[in-house]
């Protein structure tokens, strides 16, 4: 049984405003939920249609129909949980910090968070207009990585203006990624899906880098931002030999 | 005005069976449609809510309401076109051929097609159970790249069994990508989203390669298949110096 007040809370958590107000976010699917529990995130509710063996936390069994009502997915999974938004860990201030300038698509942010986790990036810094990392679609796309990467939302212009570290940015016309050695202690900026890095941030970059295009046609407009981030981070890791 | 028979045709084109039967596929949005026209694809219908200036082809003006009825998108664009599925170009048989073993997600296939176009991969070979490249969601994700990459659906097991070229495969436990030099004339296999490369194909690989994981936690399950393909292709292009 899901109470009316629980339904109301869960529905409200689709919106960032209410996630901030209540301090909770939603995760769906046993795999994602298990990963968050294993990472020590605090569970508020857990609804599942399955019988959970040896469960170490409280859960509520519900029918598929009940779950469908609260699910944000087109094809609801077998479980939905509400977690407390964790307190921010202090960021480890070394290595490459990835900076997102206005990334809008939840799937792209999710993929970038997984990439940061894979490549051991200590800090993911988002501009304030980047999609919220506790958006249900981002949570689904990141799997457990969301609990392991330190993510902050700041005024990236002020941050980058104040640093003395090199600031690399992925742009369409810059120095080839393969000829530029990216410093291990630095910022790496990638931009919005449609417009790339904003002009005011472009002006602060110390190094503009480009992923060379090899197609005979050279007509491909640009790479997807998550794809570009994957290639940039792989190259950072290869050259810094971490 | 959209006729009943046109609506029926368009609706049927969501399914691969009918795309094959009629020899048509759908593209939505002026940008994608313009790219396909520029690439010389044969237009069958073109419906748009906009007034098209200096139009060199026939189009039908429709209302947003009419467009909504035939659109496959949640947020319909301003135009929808039906194109003839192009005849296959003969593949250029040199360079790295990318082989997909059971990729299911249309967004992933779309991203991989864009990557092949970006990096000048002459041939994309898909196993028969890989999602169809004329699926409306794939078409949306590829933009014009779909018209520029030679894509075929074949029995990849037979194909790979018969070749004398090196066959590289992206797996979780293999030689580091950064220490293995990928031959320019070769096959590069990536696998299904959940299961990776199938066992029967794993058995035929001549080189198993892995994208090293650097995170302290080493808990990230795997990279998304499109992300992994991006990193593999970038490294091929960097080392072959094309």
Structure overview:
The mean pLDDT of chain A is 88. The first copy, chain A, has a 6-stranded parallel beta sheet with strand order 7-6-5-9-8-10. The first copy, chain A, is of the alpha/beta class. In chain A, helix 6 (136-142) links the parallel strand 6 and strand 7. Chain A contains 9 helices and 10 strands. The longest helix of chain A has 16 residues, at 225-240. Chain A binds chain B through residues 35, 107, 111, 114-115, 117-120, 143-145, 148, 177-178, 211-217, 219-221, 223-224, 226-228, 230-231, 234-235, 237-238, 242, and chain B through 35, 107, 111, 114-115, 117-120, 143-145, 148, 177-178, 211-217, 219-221, 223-224, 226-228, 230-231, 234-235, 237-238, 242.
């Amino acid at each position: 049984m899901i109470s009316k007040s629980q339904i109301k809370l869960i529905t409200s958590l689709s919106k960032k405003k209410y996630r901030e107000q209540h301090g909770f976010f939603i995760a769906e699917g046993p795999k994602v939920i298990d990963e968050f529990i294993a990472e020590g995130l605090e569970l508020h509710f857990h609804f599942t249609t399955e019988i959970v063996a040896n469960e170490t936390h409280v859960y509520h069994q519900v029918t598929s129909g009940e779950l469908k009502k609260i699910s944000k997915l087109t094809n609801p999974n077998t479980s939905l949980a509400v977690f407390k938004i964790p307190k921010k860990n202090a960021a480890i201030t070394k290595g490459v910090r990835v900076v997102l300038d206005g990334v809008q698509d939840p799937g792209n942010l999710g993929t970038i968070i997984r990439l940061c986790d894979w490549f051991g990036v200590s800090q993911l810094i988002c501009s304030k207009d980047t999609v919220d990392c506790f958006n249900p679609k981002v949570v689904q796309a990141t799997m457990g990585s969301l609990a392991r990467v330190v993510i902050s939302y700041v005024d990236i212009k002020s941050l980058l203006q104040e640093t003395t570290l090199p600031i690399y940015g992925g742009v369409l016309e810059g120095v080839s990624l393969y000829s530029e050695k990216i410093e291990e202690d630095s910022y790496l900026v990638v931009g919005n899906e449609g417009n790339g890095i904003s002009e005011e941030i472009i002006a602060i970059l110390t190094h503009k880098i480009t992923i060379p295009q090899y197609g005979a046609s050279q007509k491909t407009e640009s790479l997807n931002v998550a794809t570009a981030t994957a290639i940039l981070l792989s190259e950072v890791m290869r050259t810094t030999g971490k």
